[in-house]
Amino acid sequence: MAFWWPLLVLGFAYAICKFLFMLIPPNVPSIEVDASDVLDDDGNQTQENGFIYVPPRGRTPQAETKVQCYEPATMKYLGYFPALTPDEVKERVAQARKAQKIWAKSSFKQRRQFLRILLKYIIEHQELICEISSRDTGKTMVDASLGEIMTTCEKITWLLSEGERWLKPEYRCSGRSMLHKKSKVEFHPLGVIGAIVSWNYPFHNIFNPMLAAVFSGNSIVIKVSEHASWSGCFYFRIIQSALAAVGAPENLVDVITGFAETGEALVSSVDKIIFVGSPGVGKMIMRNAAEMLIPVTLELGGKDAFIVCEDADVEHVAQIAVRAVLQSSGQNCAGAERFYVHEDIYSSFVSQVSKIVKSVTAGPPLAGKYDMGAICLQEHSERLQNLVNDALDKGAKFVVRGSVGHIGEGAVDQFFPPTVIENVNHTMKLMQEEAFGPIMPIMKFSTDEEAVKLANDSKYGLGCAVFSGSQRRAKEIASQIHCGVAAINDFASTYMCQSLPFGGVKDSGFGRFAGVEGLRACCLVKSVVEDRWWPYIKTKIPKPIQYPVGDNGFEFQESLVEALYGMNIWDRLRALVNVLKILTEQNSPANSKRRDD
């Protein structure tokens, strides 16, 4: 006891000191971000550009030199941003490359301070960030908080806690033949990362690749969607202010606006490309990246299976199911689009979700208390209705629709009420094509094997959710579904665990962001081997295989292989004796003389 007592006291004292140290708030400076053009003097949304925007017809957006921005929920005009030319994009990338050479030498302490400044600003300005996201994409404030704020804060917190650990050199086993060596993997910045991101989460889709790129020592140029440029350019100001506060070089992070031509120029200029968007565009980016042989991470479409077994809590799961469909105002990210419910509880599940959906009201998210906002993309509601009509024509049954609140005449086409469809099957487009909208198609299954078969009958493979009263059963079903992420008795919880990689298979893309895998994907992974006991033990080529190679050179190699990798200890010892014998003979004076002759 006398021996352990001092150790216990020291351990307890260390724990107390660590706890007290945690109570001391870190010294994190505040930053000022100019929001004068999005807020009026009273802190409310400015209505300076309040006229209704009517999109031009008969010409493609790519022909425009400006990216026009408007609120999808009201069609009120927000302003415009330039569509950058290829030469302008290349100049921006060149500036980012210069900044990266400086930032690559920055300390992890400086990088962590950058993250803390961002985290502080986000926490203190949640309402502003969510309002801007809501205005630009039509989502509700609650959906913006869940999808934009919480996920980004979680990523920052994970990087602060574990980021440096996973970027430090990682020592590996050197194997039997290299016992005298030290082996490690080093993680160096790639250079300039390019990101082309979608509109559905304008804040998080910018911060997600930016945080990983900057913390790993890279610079990054982000092309924001033409459907979310207004919010993206404001969020860029937050990043600029935080970088300036830590003395980072200018142009380390850049946000650019434009159309397809702008994105193509970015792909041809950077050292790695991260793309979040549709499979069709993802394939075009791959073709362009192949010309430059640069690595690509693709997070593409999703049509997640949502499986409900007969022993699940129907009332509980129904609430999660509706949230899974309606999250972000039907702008699903890893959204559930195929619902498979066991036949024993099919009727009760349909009844329960119908009751919930019937109470949901869609409307301008900042104009009243609405459960769901607008559809961001123009003419998308027409496509959604076509998917529903195709299902109805092939035998599906319309169950219920939510309601639409008071909306302006110019924005009628921007809203699609939440819709429940039953008796669907896989011949319908609704069960095969990505809907990206608030539609819940529900299909029966009778066995677990059938549920797995149905879930895998899709060209997409992003995620799945499985619900059962038996966690073991739910895990068994999920393990057989060919997808990148799976939630057991929950939905989309994998994305809130930022230590986990995120991504899919098949038409949902490949590569991962988030987690250790996503962080290291921003790095040049370099294998390094060095002498363990330098300069006392060095690599020396054995005489039998030195040039000119001796007559017994192959015999030596054969014995060496068996000595290192033989199947049992006796074979290895016998081979080792032969290796030593050959070396002894090779080093004898008589043999040396024969070699000289």
Automatic annotation (TrEMBL):
Residue stretches making up the Aldehyde dehydrogenase domain: 64-528
One GO MF term attached to the UniProt entry: oxidoreductase activity, acting on the aldehyde or oxo group of donors, NAD or NADP as acceptor
Coiled coil found in the keyword field: no
One Pfam short name: Aldedh
Presence of keyword Cell inner membrane: no
PROSITE patterns assigned: ALDEHYDE_DEHYDR_CYS, ALDEHYDE_DEHYDR_GLU
Lineage: Eukaryota, Viridiplantae, Streptophyta, Embryophyta, Tracheophyta
Protein name: PREDICTED: aldehyde dehydrogenase
Protein family (similarity comment): Belongs to the aldehyde dehydrogenase family.
Gene3D superfamilies in alphabetical order: Aldehyde Dehydrogenase, Chain A, domain 1 (3.40.605.10), Aldehyde Dehydrogenase, Chain A, domain 2 (3.40.309.10)
Keywords: Oxidoreductase
Catalytic site positions: 299
Annotated transmembrane regions: none
